[in-house]
Amino acid sequence: MNTPTRRDPAHVYDVAVIGGGVVGAAIARDLSGHDLSVALVEARDDVGDGTSKANTAILHTGFDATPGTLESRLVQRGYALLSAYARDTGIPVEHTGAVLVAWTTEELQALPGLKDKAERNGYHQCRLIDADEVHRLVPALADGALGGLTVPDESIICTWTTTLALATDAHQRGTQVLLGHAVTGVAVGPHHTTLTTTRGTVHARWVVNAAGLGADTVDRLFGHDRFTVTPRRGELFVFDKLARPLANKIVLPVPTSRGKGVLISPTVYGNVMLGPTSQDLTDRAATDTSQDGFDFLLAKGERLMPRLLTEEVTATYAGLRAAIDHGDYLIEPTPDQRYLLVGGIRSTGLTAGMAIAEHVTQLLRTAGLTLNPRADLPPPPRMPNIGESTPRPYQDHQRITEDPAYGQVVCFCERVTAGEIRDACHAPLPARNLEGLRRRTRAMNGRCQGFFCGAAVTQLLHAHGNRGGTADPEENR
């Protein structure tokens, strides 16, 4: 049976998965459902702390993927898998539906082709609508819409909880989660590969590279030169919860020859997002926002939904997507090196992650890895609810009666309680710092951005065994 144990530096894992984002966590979870020893090797101090933490958090139907591609197939399969997994684990999901809005003649003429593309992708629920119905569905839109296309099954999801659930599930199945292990060197031997990391060596018979923005760098450590990652920055505005009635559906742009454009989307936390921008960079750590980005989004917001711009902005943020010069996911095994690349996974990786994991497992089997399914798997974890569509702990009178800490609100903007912060600090993959607490509880994510609650939240983090810095990643295993 795969059981979590303190790591022996000389131990040789059956598989090491590089990258603790949503795709890497899904792969580790799937592999640890077999009679294998698995390590999840993550450069940062927490899972889901890279590309996976900052995206538009949409659970995609795959209606607009390029038909016949691997991405199209895996997004469709991933939508079904993640929808079911969310129900099993409590990942917040809201089935809001979406509408693509045409504002120009070119965009209006593109809508029938998009409906046809959706049908070629196996999605037959899209419907062409006129301008009156567009405004009936989203009354707050600016005047001037010419028509639209509905996508009733597009949904919003919590990307933070998704990654954490998959990584926690992998951990409980026996995967060793090695945090702070940035891979700096690779030596492929006759029987196993040695990964040199910033926290020592990791030995594995097979290696899966799901390193996201660093996937091309790791690929070159294996001697390949098949692609280059271009960091693509997307900046977004997050509007206050009072704006939520303005956008109860996802408002998607119509892709044209000039690009995909900017969307307006509700979030599972009760906010509204406007974005993203799209800017290719060279700096893989450039997650800062910019004046140019703000100006661009303000102009788009004024054109799409002027009333939204009268609401308060709670936060701004930027995420980096791993763009490559390849029209599809790049998932390729190299059997003679016992190595498999998972590269070029765009923002659809959130939806496709579990299907990518299935695909990777099958490719490894074909490449020679022995895979025997386990019969002793633990049930999937039940994740804390940080969404607004179902009751939160501060609203659960029975829970508060049993444990008053769930009635002690610490972060008043987001209604986060002392019990939730305590639980996050003692979870199987605990919060190790304030940013980890943000993603696990929503603490300090509201209007005040921690101005009023930051001291109390920090005090609770200290009280539960962390001093606000990076804990030893060998703990809690």
Automatic annotation (TrEMBL):
This is FAD/NAD(P)-binding oxidoreductase. Gene3D superfamilies: BFD-like [2Fe-2S]-binding domain, D-Amino Acid Oxidase, subunit A, domain 2, FAD/NAD(P)-binding domain. Pfam families: DAO, Fer2_BFD. CDD domains: GlpA-like_Fer2_BFD-like (cd19946). It comes from Wenjunlia vitaminophila. Residues 14-363 form the FAD dependent oxidoreductase domain. Residues 409-462 form the BFD-like [2Fe-2S]-binding domain.
